[in-house]
Amino acid sequence: MDRDTRATILATVGFLGIGVLYAFLAAYFSVPVLRVGNYKTLWIIGTTLETLIAHFIPLVAVGMILATSLWVEGETLQYSTRDALHQIRKLFFFSLGVACLFGILQEGVLPWATQMKQSALRKTQIANELRDKAFAAERTKEYSNARFYLEYYLTLFPKDDQVRPLLDRVREKEREQQMQPSIKPQEPTSILKFKELTFQDLQEKATQYYQEQDFVAAEYFALMALKMKPNHPEMLRLLASAQNTLSRIRLTPDQEARRSLFQAKQQGYEYLKQGDSISAYYHFQELSKRYPKDSEIAKYLQLSYEEVKKKAFFQDEVSLVTGEPLASDIFFKNSFREGLQEFLYFSKIIATGPSTYYVLDIEGIGIDSSGKVSYRFKAPVGKFVDSTLLMHCLNRKDPNLSSKPTYFQGDPPTEPSTILPIKLKPQDLVSLARLIHSPTETPFATAISLLDIFPIASIEPMPVIHSLLMRLQGPFTCLNVSLLVLILGRMLRSRYYTRPPLITYLLIPFLPVLFTIPISLYQYELSILVSILIDKVGLGFVTAGLALVGIQGIILLAILFYGVQSFTRETA
Amino acid sequence: MNIGNTVWRFLFSTFFFFLVLNILAVPILISQAPQGGTWYFSSRLITLWDVFFITSIIVSFLRVHLLLYRNPKPFLGQLVLFFVGSVLVYALLLAFPHLRLPQISSRGETHRITSVNTIFYASKKFIWVGNSKEGVQGPILVYTPRQKDPIKIYPEGVFDPEQNTLHILQTGENISLHDRISKLRPFVLSTLWLNLQHFTQRIIPQHPLDLRAILFIGTFVCMLTSLFSLLHLTRWLLFNTLVALAVPFLIQASIAFLDELGRIPSLEYLPAILHGGTAILFFGLQLFLRPSTKR
Question: How far, in Å, CA of B145 to CA of A144, rounded?
Answer without folding.
Answer: 39
